[in-house]
Specification:
heterodimer; A: alpha+beta; Immunoglobulin-like; C8orf32 fold; Jelly Rolls; 3 domains; eight-stranded mixed β-sheet; 37 strands; B: alpha+beta; 38 strands
Amino acid sequence: MKNIINLLVVLFVSQLIIAQDYKFGKVSKEELQEKFNSLDSSASATYLYKYRKTFYEYQEQKGFQLITEIHERIKIYNQEGFDYATKAINLHKSGSYHETVTGLKAYTYNLAEGKIEDTKLKKDGIFKTEKSKYRNETKFTMPNIKEGSVLEYEYKIISPFYQNVDEFHFQYAIPVKKLEAQFQAPEYYNFKVNVKGYLRITPKVENKRDKIVFRNKSRSGGTGFGNPTSKTTFSSSTLEFNKEVSTYNLENIPALKEEPYVNNINNYRSSVKYELSYKKLPQSTIEYYSTTWEDVVKTIYKSSSFGAELNKSGYYEDDIDNLISSTSDPKKRIALIFDFVKSKVKWNEYYGYHTDDGVRKAYKEQVGNVAEINLMLTSMLRYAGLKANPVLVSTRQNGIPIFPTREGYNYVISCVELPTGNVLLDATNKYGSPNILPYRTLNWEGRIIKKGGASSQINLYPNENSKNSILMMIDLSEEGDIEGNYRSVKTNHSALSYRNRYNNSDKDDFLEKLENKYGGLEVSDFKVTNTTNLSKPIMESYKFAKESQADIIGDKIYFSPLFFLCTKENPFKLEKREFPVDFGYPSSSTYRITINLPDGYKVESLPEASALVLPENLGSFKYILSQNQSTIQLLIDTKMNTSIVSPLYYETLKSYFKQFIEKENEQIVLTKI
Amino acid sequence: MILKPIASILMLFVTLTIFSQDNLYSSLTIPEDLKENANAVVRLNEIVVSLKSSSEMSVKEKRIITVLNKQGNRAIDAYVHYDENVKIKALDVLAYDALGNEIKKIKKNDFKDVSAVDGGTLYSDSRVKYLEYTAINYPYTIEFTYETITSNTAFIPSFMPIDDYFVSAEISSYTINYPENITIRKKEKNIEGLDVEQEITAGKFFYKAKNLSAYKPEEYSPSLDAFAPKILFASKQFTLEGVHTVVENWDDFAKWMYHDLIKVTHDLPEGTIADIQNLVKDESNDINKAKKIYQYVQDKVRYISVQVGIGGWKPFNASEVDKLGYGDCKALTNYTMALLKSVNVESNYSVVYAGSTQRSIEQDFTSIQGNHVILSIPNNEEIVWLECTSQKLPFGFIGDFTDDRDVLVITPDGGEIKHTKKYTTEENTQIIKGNYIVSNEGSIDVEVKIESKGIQYDDKYWLESETERDLDEGYKKRWRYINNVVINRMSIENDKDSIVFNETINFKASNYPKVVANRMLLTVNALNRNTHIPDRYRNRKLPLKIKRGFKDIDEVVIALPKDYKIESLPNKKVIENKFGNYVAEVIAKDENTLLYKREFIVNDGEFPKEDYADFRKFYKEVSKQDNAKVALIKKE
């Protein structure tokens, strides 16, 4: 009993505080007077209060509607924060179903001669736009915004899409002083709760009772010709049910700030996602959605635009029969089919693991989305007797699929199991090759779906380093000018990105860009081989000349042996870092450089050999110089053996870059004989 | 198996006969010189504009484009805008393969239909239908046909056979038909020396251009708009969003704009007028009054673009801006103007092409032009220009957004073409005063003051609103050639009264000079090293244009490490040419102190393309000199 009283008192007190501070319209003078956020003085604006409540409401004819109530109070400190005075509400639509906004109410508050002055948002500041077939937008911009203004708005979104509960975000580009969020799920809907991000978030969960009142209308009589009188009776019945109420209460949430070399900042944004796992309405059978990755995969697999599309084969059988009749070697068959799909069907730049127009149409029209192309590929590989399966992928842009949701993935590729190992294939990119996936898909792990729908995780990052080997012969003149030959060999992702650039651009333009990248290097005899022969590495070679690459002081010549290839700038400039550094794929470069000295000069001093190693074999740098009578030879070998480096190693990584840049810039001294 | 070759022979015949008809759908018939620098070739473009009356115009266009590579896809440009007053009557696309065989038909309903709002606009009632087409192979050809009907006749499409870089045109024609009671004016630009035929008869203009090569963008060149061929058209009698008018010259035009669109919006609440009168009551001259009012506007409003109906052309009422506290360029300019008027300060609404390219209003061609509005205040011989959409720019400072170009100034009595403020080389200064100490270990400790004016002020004033983290990173990027910079102090001061931006920075960097055995090689110019070398072109096509000049003056005192003495100093270097001049000098003040003096001036101007190589050489030489090193040697 005492406990209950305590609880009541606490509840009462906390409600009192809320009532004082955060009731709509109760903006205080203190809030208006505040000049900056005392916890983060760089903030241009702050959410003083951010409230969201999402729940279900039963509406006759329509059934359960998903309702979201929003109430936000924002402090604007300076002009950079003015963007927060404009709000865009995204509204989904599909066929005749669409989301609507109601009850929009908004005010701007300013302090005028010590008094609080409010300005109401009127219709002329609200704009409704049909953005596309699938999306409406309601946008509004607040009147009378100045530095120091506080603005506040509330509205409600009514959605017929009961299964899609938008993610609850708890962290934004600006700080939040107080955040309250609530989600209510009726017993008929069961949700899986998925939490991500760096904040510690635990909701308070309670069970509450709720009810639906049905009003029934029944007619009697009036059936037959002889009985014209009919009677309508009204009655009502009540259905009681349980609901689970989860409430989040957070204070002083720091802003989420962008950093360079972050894969996708949303991976680190604190948020909670409610994913419908099953639906069990009274008098109907249970309908499962997803609780585990297995369920997610099953749901995807069973959908007609995935599994069924995978099983269609009639449309290509003749072509594939012809194509592979000459070989029974699995690797050759993979290569043939992969190339066939790449040249036959072009990607329309749409993502998705669901087909859009279907594989058959995509094949006929030679254009398709990701699913059409890669499901078709998988199907053909299976038809050719290979153990091929689709792999669900989340692109870098979509973020890392941390918890099982259908939206967690947005892409599909193909995997063939061979005794020698897995071969990953994506036929949307003309220059992709087996196990060299486009950069957009290099994102942690994918999920392979076996026949029947069983699934497991599969690593998407390449195991092998992408290599760039550079060979140079350089003649250094007495005046400090250089000329020589350059040759490079690029493999894997280095080759892929080169092919994407080279093959899609005007050749003269490419050459000019190359020259200008090195500050006006003069290039001749430029040659690239294997631009389309993907089984071989890219080979680039040219002759070059560049002036003033050495300092001549007195009778000495000073230069760094990498000349124009020297790394000049440390990419890591931030003093500290919160999130992992993402390089995309592991890589290594080697430089073998031979420098012919000008006549009449000899080496006075050479930088010492050096070797740097990052912990856990993450990366390494090796630098060795040697000389004989008239030449100097340099060997540099750098490796970044991982795609991702934890922020724990940021300091180490930054100083590793610093050291090897310094080493590369060290000077050789020549002196006149 | 035997059948197949026969089929392909037949195919060959068929295609051959198509070739002989000079087929524009096949990529094989493109003249060689049109492929140079081209990602796409406009094979045929036929525009037919028909003015039925001063309030009805139809535009029909048929365009056949061969796309040569991925970059050329954008040249298809299958976008058609529509709104309340512009209806799309027809819209069709046919796609052809490299040989000219039809491969796909696309109908109006297959077009995407979206709101035509760009990033900077909050709302617009304009919509756009556009085509999304995935190329199966390159090259391919698209035939795009559409027809629109509109009651707005204020904008008659221009004839622009080349409207983008990397696109050439084989045949491009333009016809405009108009009734007797309408007068059409035209202006031809840059068509001398081109293959253009024309036919002018009663009620009709016809132009046809052939074989126009593609342009490639080049650094330091005039903008495409300045050299591409173009013929502009305007009707003396026109209708805009239901408003009809007759305009023959700039005076007519300005009167129409002033009386129909601007004057009627100058309503201000009494309260605001009283506030403004009170605000400037102690100011005796107009410029000081204007200064206060400009500040008042900057504190009160923000820029939000909303384009609805006639509102796309007519400013919001001043009372609306007063109430809402926001508006687009028209509304904010007009609001400022109304406030000035309330205290009897004259100012004029001025139409301009905004952007750093310095595009001018075509002064001898009266028509609706421009894409932005600023305010001008006559001040004896001078004019004070105000950018009313910015809350940060100092009074009278317009920066590179609207500087140095012809604009249309609208007064109650007519219109005049005026030239906006040009920021001269002498005004665009950056003065560096600094010193740094080099330690025996090779670290440097730098203290520097940077004072920027003119366009160099424009380049930096926004730093004022950067967060500390971004500013820190920004300075590390500015001195990117120094590894390991650690910034201790930064302070910036934006002096809006005298329009000067002051920065004071203190930073340290380890391992700055190169230490080799007992020597230290010190690149003296640590604070303002030119790292920019203009791009090299194997075959420069466009003239050299330097839009804005600048002048940098540096004076830096260097304290040398105690254990070292000077072994050698770079010689004084002086470069002088028509592009500017450069002087750099290292003076040994005493055995431990150096004074580095540098002056680098680049003048604005236009030069023939042949001069480009020398201009580039100038920058190259400056870069080289900026890397000049002092050699220090360890004392015994």
